[in-house]
Prior knowledge:
The chain is of the alpha/beta class. The chain has helices at residues 11-29, 38-49, 110-126, 149-154, 214-225, 227-230, 270-291, 310-324, 341-347, 380-397, and strands spanning 55-59, 63-68, 77-83, 134-140, 165-176, 180-181, 185-188, 190-199, 203-204, 239-248, 254-255, 258-267, 294-303, 306-308, 329-330, 350-358. The strands form 4 sheets. An 8-stranded mixed β-sheet has the order 1-2-4-3-5-16-6-15, with helices on both faces. Strands 10-12-8-13 form a 4-stranded antiparallel β-sheet, covered by helices on one side. The radius of gyration is 23 Å and the shape is elongated.
Amino acid sequence: MSGLDGLPIRQGLRDRFESMVDFRRDLHRHPELAFKEERTAHQVASLLTKSGLELRTGIAGTGIATLVEGPRDPGRTILFRADMDALPIHEENTTDYVSKNAGVMHACGHDGHTSILAHTVLETLALRDTRALHSRFVFQPAEEGPGGALPMIREGVLQDPPVEAAFGLHLWNKLEAGKVAVTAGPFMAAADEFHITIHGLGGHGAYPHDAIDAVVIGSYLVTALQTLVSRDTNPVKTAVVSVGTFHAGSNFNIIAETARLKGTVRTFDLEVRARIIERLQTIVEHTAKMFRAKIDFEFLDTYPPTVNDPEMAEFVAEVAAEVVGQENVVRDLVSMGGEDMSFFLQEVPGCYFFLGSADPSRKLDESHHSPRFDFDERVMPLGAELFLRIQERYLARFPEKLIRTGAR
Length: 408
């Protein structure tokens, strides 16, 4: 199954397909990093204001929000969110829409997310007389870090009128186009970051006894940190500890005085997360004593786990089954990737789900964050169809407001 073929996608979205592709490719040619999405935000605003919508712009810097009201006000509002930022990656694709910004690339599908949501807004406007529900649409900066969701929440995107549920999707190249992954409960991991700076004593490579070698200390730490999962975490739990950068030294015969390491901790379980943080700090402290070095340690509490409300997840799975068939709804997929959609889902019940976007036959199955990442654009109308059906089915499925089970 791929994209539009044989799926019950409304004609309005089929008619918008070319516009979806053009809009996505324009964003792809001009990617922008976190909190610098000025052109992207301008393009979104230009598209939506042509339909007479009032927009709130400049939220958390470059974020946008708009409200489409139903003609029969039920006093109830739900939210849909897309992320707009790109990554600091030099694109290696050779398409005619390859990035024109050297060293910056849409390598995670956010250009597709933005196009899907923008065209969902336009189709929602065209169908507004058939629906009672209010829908808020949020275009968010900086998902790749340091995070735009929490600043947007703090600037009121869940208020006026208050939002009672939140939904979002992520194009997913680990799934064939036309499949949808919906998981109740923990879906994506907490994505935390740590920084380690080792202060040793530099010296000549021929006289190591006169120095305190930051490279050796760093290498020891990289190895020791692997025990946090293999020997310190309950094997029936899930966790990842990865060192992503290791910078030290200036020449082959100089013992490095300083080394800097950065890494990430990924967990679903908050108790596991707390234990790893505690043990990580202990290992760093004792390593410093063992090697007579000074080590600075910083742990950055970034994104919490993305946790789907069980009732909302079941609802989205039902909607997805209407469109792609029950056999194409995956119910048990979880990812160690992190997402700041998690902050929305801490405030209100909701569901974040994956939309399969891979077509191996066309070599559209590269991993996310790869310099060769691209996806099957034919799934974009499918994403919009799912968002529209969530709006259309929501009040029947939830005739009364849910208690905010995820509120902090």
